[in-house]
Amino acid sequence: MVRGVFRRTRALGLVLALAASLSGCWYHTNVPWAGGPIDDPVVVETLRIGGWNLAARDQPGWEVLGNQLMPKPQGNLALKSIDFSLVDAAGNPISTHLVHLHHIVMMDMTRPDPLCPEVGARFAASGSERTPLVLPGDYAYKVDAGDLWGSTFHVHTSGPAAVNGVYLQYEVSYERITSANANSFKYTSPYFLDVTGCWENSASEYDVPGGGAAGSEHVLPRQYTLPRNGTAVFAGGHLHAGGVDLSLTRDGTGEDYCTALPKYTPGGHPSHPRLGYLNDIDPCPIHSRVNAGERFTLRSTYDNQYPVAKAMGIMLMHVYEP
What is the pTM of this model? Predict the structure, then answer.
């Protein structure tokens, strides 16, 4: 359903103000801002799947794992943002203490992924941290009317109570592409950086063994080489409970390109008593040149005092490639 239309102007000052307000992230730029303001009508459309009745945790019917086509807005669109949540039938948020969004990955099934061409382009993703995809200025992800959106997702209950009527909801903001504005946008390519590689065997999951001393860490790195020149304009990380941080380093200089830091509510988590429940992870506001052949290392760091089954370490980047 379409929730409304509003007007929005974005400029560098807004991006810098946002960066200054984000805990644990800093604004990384080596490219003069040329994103320009956008002052066109932006449509906000809310879509959902589900209506699942979930049993208590670890009981038959306590989880739903899906791979399916997803509803999408109609027409040719410049996608500006997408935000995921779990809600009831009335659209009210469901507490993470009741139901857990393990992960949702959205794929454009009509385009190959830039790093793993055997799957569709993975352009948006989230989990319990609920990091939204937000593309600033006139940067946008191009969606054609004939595109097909697919997904892989995992939703399950978190505690000893059954929960009925669970929906996975996503709010999409976009601008319609017309003959008048078609050349106004700078379209991005999504780069889904995963410490486990391209999904062949692991489905992005790996195990942290645990059993280490208090404060010890388990680090899993993976190096990536970017194939084209461009400007990175968004980076957001995904970790599970027990994650300490997710970092992306530019190998040639050693600089910290983006470090995603999770925020926790201390106490109460049965598997992570030291850290607690993972609440959110801020994205890294960036506007920075990347070059074809340049290598980056992604590092996923977890608390190794306690074991973590099916951990993940993923960073999604959007890069404008003229």
Answer: 0.87
CA distance 85 to 300: 24
Residue in 281, 203, 204 with CA at minimum distance from that of residue 241: 281
**157-174 pLDDT per residue, tens:** 988 999 999 999 999 999
Angle at 158 between CA 154 and CA 161, to 5 degrees: 120
- Structural domain boundaries, residue 219: 2-320
Closest among 129, 202, 140, 150 to 173, alpha carbons compared: 140
Q: Which residues contact 63 (CB under 8 A, 6 or more apart)?
A: 54, 154, 155, 156, 157
Three-state secondary structure call for residue 13: helix
Decide if 287 contacts 31 (C-beta within 8 A): yes
Query: What is d(CA 319, CA 288) in angstroms, rounded to the nearest whole number?
Result: 9
Read off the amino acid at residue 74. Answer: Q
Helices (H), 22-157: none
At 187-213, the pLDDT tens digits run 999 999 999 998 765 678 999 999 999
How are beta strands 28-29 and 286-290 bridged, if at all? parallel
Q: How many domains in the chain?
A: 1
**Residue 139 CB neighbours (<10 A):** 24
- Which token pair is 244? 């300490």
Spatial neighbors of 121 by CB under 8 A, at least 6 apart, are 107, 108, 111, 112, 113, 114, 189, 190
